[in-house]
Amino acid sequence: MKVILFGATGMVGQGVLRECLIDPGIESVLSVGRSPTGQQHAKLREIVHGDFTNFGTIESELSGYDACFFCLGVSSVGMDAERYRHLTYDITMAAATTLVKLNPGMVFTYVTGRGTDSTGQGSRMWARVKGKTENDLLKLPFKAAYMFRPAGIQPLHGVRSKTGWVNAIYVVAAPLLSYLARTSPKFMTTSEKLGRAMVKVARDGFAKPILESEDINAV
Ligand SMILES: NC(=O)c1ccc[n+]([C@@H]2O[C@H](COP(=O)([O-])OP(=O)(O)OC[C@H]3O[C@@H](n4cnc5c(N)ncnc54)[C@H](OP(=O)(O)O)[C@@H]3O)[C@@H](O)[C@H]2O)c1
To answer: H or E element: which one contains 148?
Structure first.
């Protein structure tokens, strides 16, 4: 597979990038980010792009791909609803509508989170925005689209969150997270399991379009 990765510098994206680079079934990885990953690998090519609501200037570089791993995303903590909606819905849909036009045979995988609200009626703003994003991605004419809803993610292999307070929690709670990752698949996965699951589902498909934490751990 030839794949495109968004959010490769983040906690989820670092894990997905690692699995892509070591998987012999992945021929090449194109990272599209606002900052470089700092990694060098024969399979990895990077585009540093400024405006994530408009991919017109790099469209010529975005065709010929089999899968997209969309790991770009932000926490809603301390963010007003309009800004969160812009960073979550507008950016994701701008990328997805560009990619589906250029790669109709593509499998699109998107990372949301446990508790995402598909109904649009719930009380939590972040969950409604993520749910609306999932719903609209699933309407696009990709070959297939899969929504990954991890709960907690134990970072492995040097993976770190870009969000300082998230990183601090994961460092302080490392022993507990490690225990939960082994015993509570509904509430915890690892960056390695999530990355591997996204690669496997993009390659082989899955029985349903939305994968909760326990599905991610079972893939
Ligand atoms: N970490 C968890 O425990 C966890 C659990 C469940 C779900 N999730 C979900 O997984 C997704 C990714 O989370 P994460 O933990 O990987 O986040 P993270 O470590 O904070 O990384 C965020 C990524 O998104 C990019 N990004 C953020 N704002 C951007 C913008 N305006 N334009 C372009 N790129 C932007 C960042 O790029 P820069 O490097 O340039 O900043 C980085 O690559 C989120 O949707 C999150 O809700 C995470």
So the answer is: strand 144-149
Nearest CA to ligand 1 atom 42: 10
CB 68 within 8 A of CB 8: no
pTM above 0.85, yes or no: yes
Residue 214's H or E segment, with its range, is helix 213-218
pLDDT by residue for the chain (219 residues), tens only, comes to 999 999 999 999 999 999 999 999 999 999 999 999 999 999 999 999 999 999 999 999 999 999 999 999 999 999 999 999 999 999 999 999 999 999 999 999 999 999 999 998 999 999 999 999 999 999 999 999 999 999 999 999 999 888 888 888 888 988 898 898 889 999 999 999 999 999 999 999 999 999 999 999 999
Check pocket membership of 9 for ligand 1, CB cut-off 6 A. Answer: yes
Ligand 1 pocket, mutate which of 111, 132, 194 (most atoms under 8 A from CB): 111
